[in-house]
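PROTOCOL LOG
Step 1. Enter all chains and additional molecules of the complex.
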Amino acid sequence: MSELLSAELLTNIGRQSEPRREIVTRRDIRKYAVATGNRQRKYLDGDLAPPMFHVPLFWDVVELDQLTPDGVSIDALLPKFPLEKAMAGGLNIEYHKPIRPGDWLTSTRTLTAIYDKKGRSGALIFYEVVMDIVDDDGELVIREKTTRILR
Amino acid sequence: MTTTSQQARLAAVSVGDELPQREFECGNVQLMLYNAALWNGHRIHFDEPYAKEVEGYPGLVIAGPLLGDWLHQGVEEWLGDDGRIVSIDYSNRVATYVGDILTSGGTVVELFNDTQEALVDVFVKNAAGDVVTPGQVRVRFGDVW
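Step 2. Run joint prediction.
Step 3. Record the structure below.
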């Protein structure tokens, strides 16, 4: 255990969000394909979801009074960290199965790691959140791991 | 199922091959539609006085995942119907703004003939030539959705 990361903070590792189940529609696929500047007909027509369609599908929908004044929703999965300035993070996404209109998908997010490192200009905290997306047969469709750095 | 043309495509790919580059310029309308599609209300993406005066940015900030999407598009347009993206790693390193001229591209860095896969280093660069979003994509030939 480090001075920065208390034992209590580390007990949050393994914490999981409530599963969220959403339906994929042709209209939502088409809106996303257009908004990203996609040039492939199968996506623009909404026959198949392009990569990263899970981002709009599972972006948190919160009520207006739950947004901060700068328009951000608070991630309820995360504990309060002793460092708060967010730096660049990374994303790893595995694509296991295609997504099509009519599919019901369920995502579950897990806080899988919290650790610290000594950076050039002081301590850094890293945390990792894994989002598993499964279909109604329980088969893995997408696994996304986000790593974020705080200083 | 792998077709003859897909096998021929993998055989024609070599380490060092460069992907076609594509230019992206995100305007206010596209950025608004993108964040609306996500339900992302972060003001730095649509409220220019707020982004400049309160947050100190030179303009409206392009949402990080949109740059990640462009990495995918560059690879998929190169792959055509010969394969698909299996996985990606990327990070947003430098902020980009509405009106920036950005370019996506990549280079094949490793081939795996046993699995018919390839690793491709990918990037989005800004007009100054800085890589704003580096990444690496694993593709598999002969596997198409």
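Step 4. Note key features.
The longest helix of chain B spans residues 64-79.
The mean pLDDT of chain B is 95.
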